[in-house]
Amino acid sequence: MFGWMLNFAYIALIALASPWLVYASVRKGKYRQGFTEKFLGRCPTRTGNRPCVWLHAVSVGEVKLLAPLVAEIARRRPDVQCVISTTTKTGHDLAATLYPEYTRFYCPLDFTWAVAEAMHRLRPELLVLCELELWPNLIHAARRHGAKVAVVNGRLGAKSFRGYRRIRPLVAHLLQSLDLVAAQNDEYAERFTALGARQESVEITGSLKFDGAISDRRNPRTTALQKLTRWPEDAVVLLAGSTQDPEEQLALSAFAELSVNHPKLRLIIVPRHPERFDEVARMLDASGCSWRRRTGLAKLDSASRTPLPPAPPILLVDTVGELSAWWGLTTIAFVGGSLGNRGGQNMLEPAAFGAAVSFGPNTWNFRDIVEAMLGRDAAVVIRNGEELTAFVRRCLDDPAYAEQLGRRAATMVAEGRGATGRTVELLCELLPANAAIHSRAA
């Protein structure tokens, strides 16, 4: 009965949001793909009787987060079949790039019929949810099917905690049905327990983001991008990544002011949302600066039969899923989503490469990581365009300062690794030991 009450609530919410959903679908191309998978649960039907782990990641960040986890599961349990679901189109597209050998699909919406059909088709032994994807019907369908349920890289911020506490009886029932909550730190673990999670199911594993952060600047993807730009090796790259309005303009203003006296300075802008690529392109056109799209750079490279000159000093990355590799070219980093209301983005990626990292004050989604970085003098908080320009200027005028800042950041990331191994060890305890498992398909 509770499941059907949720169905009616979801339908009502969709009905209320339908004008915006239609607009986003028509104007921005959102929500068009995966209709039967989302609404009917008609994901690919799994064959064979190998143990199955269903891993769910919402969007780009979570999809990348799964990479070390999937690799470690494959190493420890080669008999296990992993399938990967996402929610957003960008996440689905990135999963196709990162995990071509795995079954990928859109996660069914939390309707009873959709999640039941997906469970019937996939027959998982274990459902793994990234960070805080607590969908009641999905979790209950997994339990009815006989699968264990785990939350990995568990994160429960102060705002979410206050909201869930208002409906604690409902949340407690849901959390008590989880077999494992692998929390990032003590604070999050205590919050999960306070909301009703069983003490014995909550473990502290650390953050998977440390393990997912690449530290070798000579990795193949970064090397390929360096060749694509044809920028000189001594170029000083300022990268503004995962940006939202008006962060692109602030980065551009800093570049325009400082590049006059620092001709080696280059600027890379990577907006957070693909639908803003054209908007940022118009801003760059209006600036009068020399710039190029990343996709345009690739087309020139593939079409030319003779060596091309270096790319312009400003590059707009209008692709999805490449930011982690672009950070490998970076000398000075500004991590976006931190001057507005989004709560910040992953600052461990530029930190792992040893870049001089900066971000705005609004980073509540990464509060523990921010506190660790600031506590070790491994990052700088900037509050406006003037402070961003001042930070970049200091890094340019005092390369030793930038190098020391980056070295402290890289050391912190290296010391924080290990969550993947601890998490997979706990997940393996939830899987059957014997690979010869009979199918539970109806």
How confident is the prediction overall: mean pLDDT?
92
How many separate domains?
2
- Number of discrete helical segments: 20
CATH-derived architecture of the largest domain:
3-Layer(aba) Sandwich
Report the structural category.
alpha/beta
Mass-distribution shape = globular
Distance between the first and last residues' Cα: 23 Å
Tally of extended strands? 14
Proportion of helical residues: 40-55%
Q: Please give the largest β-sheet.
A: 7 strands, parallel
- Classified by CATH, the class of the largest domain is Alpha Beta
- Assign the CATH superfamily of the largest domain: Glycogen Phosphorylase B
pLDDT < 50 stretches? 435-442
Radius of gyration: 23 Å
Q: Reading side by side through the largest sheet, how are the strands ordered?
A: 3-2-1-4-5-6-7
**Quaternary status:** single chain
CATH fold call of the largest domain: Rossmann fold
List its salient traits.
single chain, 442 residues, alpha/beta, Rossmann fold, 7-stranded parallel sheet, 20 helices, disordered C terminus
Reconstruct the topology from this structure.
Blueprint: H1 2-28, H2 35-40, E1 52-56, H3 60-76, E2 81-86, H4 89-98, E3 103-106, H5 112-122, E4 126-130, H6 136-145, E5 148-154, H7 158-165, H8 168-175, E6 180-183, H9 186-194, E7 202-204, H10 208-212, H11 220-229, E8 236-243, H12 247-258, E9 265-271, H13 277-287, E10 291-293, H14 294-303, E11 314-316, H15 323-326, E12 332-335, H16 348-352, E13 356-359, H17 367-375, E14 380-381, H18 385-397, H19 399-415, H20 419-430
Parallel strand pairs: 1-2, 1-4, 2-3, 4-5, 5-6, 6-7, 8-9, 8-12, 9-11, 10-11, 12-13, 13-14
Helix pairs in contact: 3-4, 3-20, 5-6, 12-18, 18-19
